[in-house]
Design goal:
single chain; alpha+beta; six-stranded mixed β-sheet
Length: about 525
């Protein structure tokens, strides 16, 4: 059975539409239904703003993009006219600024549309005139740098969620070196304390918090997490690379921030922008480890990470199942794209700029020598046929010499060059001075700063830091596949070898945790290391 009140509302709206279409031309507006829905209207306001700034903006917008009206959307309540309608601007977009009736998302902030001032006798022409007066006297300005319209999701965020304008600052311009360090390396920003208060006032909040940050015209946007709520009021502080992802911004560096929910990511394709990245061992493990500090990634962004005291840059080529994804605690397939040139260079080039300067000593193959027809030259230690020995010795002593440091035969004329290129000293980052030709062996075998893989997480760490890292890393736990007991990673080999009897329950209970310190902790650590 049809609801009588709904029937009355529908009849009232039908009459309102007919009246609007009759008087609209004289009042310089037009009205039409959206998809035949009497509860949803599209109203176009003609340019009746004269020489006011908003009128001049609309003239310029019309000449640039062919639209000479301000299009509104009016959504009527089911109990109309007892409750006020919701009115928003659809297009064009207005500049993000305070002090105007145009809130973010295009929502029109009019006192007429509040429960306190709304009366059931208000008509559509009264609503339209109120909107015109509000726009013309507010100082609102149209964004003429690019065409655009407001989306329904923006309106919902503006009415029911978190949607605000901030002045955007980069971390480099703030001079902060404390709390910003984590934000600079983890795709996170700083927001003011008032933002947290507004967010927590909502009953529908999901963690981690993910924000869409866009420029004023919404021509570019990215998605970030939040590091802290310690920024100055009305300010957003972000790493420079995040700021670059949302350019160009308005002259006042205004950006809009909207709290959003993103789907869990399943796939991420990125391209390193430095060929040296392919020289790292375990590239996927490195990225998977560092990206744990990110909560969201957007297709088309350029992102930066920090690893081994160096900043690495990447292009985000593709994300699935959407153009922006939530990667917090998500099982994401990672695809690293690189040119074949970069890969071949990674294989053939030295691991550092210093290595490129290290000369390579000639290696002599072991060839059987017929001692009956050959004899060794005492000067160059080469075997020479007997019939040409005297001539070889005379020439060799005059022109060649044996290096006393590396036992290589060199021309006397090249002695200084050989000394400089092979035996001059290079200072390693560990502090040792090493001869050039011994430098590769030192870097790979003896240097305390050489990179060695952790046997637990497979990431490369400096040898000098490896013991401490493996002690912490090995204290992480995993479930034994045989007995389902939770065992520390560093105990797992002995646990499996002992047929799941090590460590005993009593020993496990007595063993201090990785956070314990003091005398007992050092005693247990000593016996654990010397078992």
């Amino acid at each position: 059975m049809e609801d009588p009140s709904l029937s009355k509302t529908l009849k009232r709206l039908q009459n309102e539409l007919r009246r609007a279409q009759q008087i609209g031309p004289s009042l310089k507006f037009s009205a039409a239904l959206v998809d035949g829905n009497y509860f949803l209207w599209r109203v176009a306001l003609d340019n009746t703003f004269g020489t006011s700034p908003i009128g001049q903006d609309l003239l310029l917008y019309s000449s640039l993009y062919g639209q000479n009206t301000i299009d509104l959307e009016i959504r009527f309540a089911q109990d109309h006219p007892l409750s006020p309608p919701a009115v928003r601007v659809v297009s064009p977009r207005f500049r993000a600024a305070g002090g105007t009736p145009l809130c973010l998302g295009g929502v029109l902030d009019s006192s007429l549309l509040t429960e306190q001032r709304w009366t059931p006798i208000s008509t559509i022409d009264a609503i339209v005139e109120e909107m015109k007066q509000l726009i013309s006297t507010s100082g609102a300005r149209i964004e003429t740098t690019a065409p655009g319209h407001y989306e329904e999701a923006e309106e919902r965020s503006a009415r029911n969620g978190f949607y605000r304008t901030f002045r955007c600052h980069s971390t480099s311009s703030t001079g902060s070196t404390t709390s910003l360090s984590d934000a600079s390396l983890g795709g996170k920003v700083l927001l003011p304390a008032s933002a947290l208060s507004q967010i927590m006032a909502s009953t529908d909040v999901e963690f981690p918090l993910i924000f869409e940050v866009s420029n004023a015209t919404r021509t570019s946007a990215t998605h970030v997490g939040v590091s802290d709520f310690t920024a100055a009021e009305s300010s957003l502080v972000a790493p420079q690379w995040i700021v670059s992802n949302i350019r160009p911004m308005a002259p006042a560096n205004l950006c809009t921030v909207r709290l959003v929910q993103l789907p869990k990511g399943t796939f991420l394709k990125i391209k390193p922008l430095q060929d040296e990245f392919f020289q790292l061992e375990s590239q996927k493990e490195v990225l998977e480890s560092v990206l744990r500090s990110f909560v969201a990634i957007t297709t088309g962004d350029k992102l930066q990470i920090s690893y081994e005291d160096k900043v690495w840059a990447f292009d985000v080529l593709e994300t699935r199942p959407a153009l922006a994804i939530n990667i917090n605690n998500a099982d994401v397939e990672l695809d690293i794209v690189g040119s074949t040139e970069a890969v071949s260079q990674a294989v053939s080039q030295p691991a550092s700029a210093e290595d490129a300067l290290v000369p390579q000593l000639d290696s002599k193959p072991d060839i059987p020598v017929d001692t009956n027809s050959m004899k060794q030259c005492d000067n160059c230690l080469r075997h020479v046929p007997l019939q040409s020995l005297q001539g070889h010795i005379a020439f060799c002593i005059r022109n060649n010499m044996l290096c006393g440091k590396c036992s290589q035969v060199i021309r006397k004329a090249d002695a200084e060059t050989h000394e400089r290129e092979f035996h001059s000293l290079i200072q390693c980052e560990c502090g040792d001075n090493i001869e050039r030709f011994k430098f590769p062996e030192h870097k790979s075998m003896m240097c305390y700063h050489r990179l060695v893989r952790c046997k637990f997480c497979k990431l490369s760490k400096r040898f000098v830091d490896l013991s401490e890292h493996q002690d912490v890393c090995g204290s992480r736990t995993d479930k034994c596949a045989k007995c389902n007991q939770i065992v520390k990673l560093k105990d797992l080999p002995l646990h499996e070898k002992s047929n799941c009897t090590y460590p005993t329950a009593a020993a496990a209970a007595l063993r201090p945790t990785e956070n314990e310190s003091g005398l007992m902790g050092r005693i247990f650590s000593f016996f654990n290391q010397n078992k």
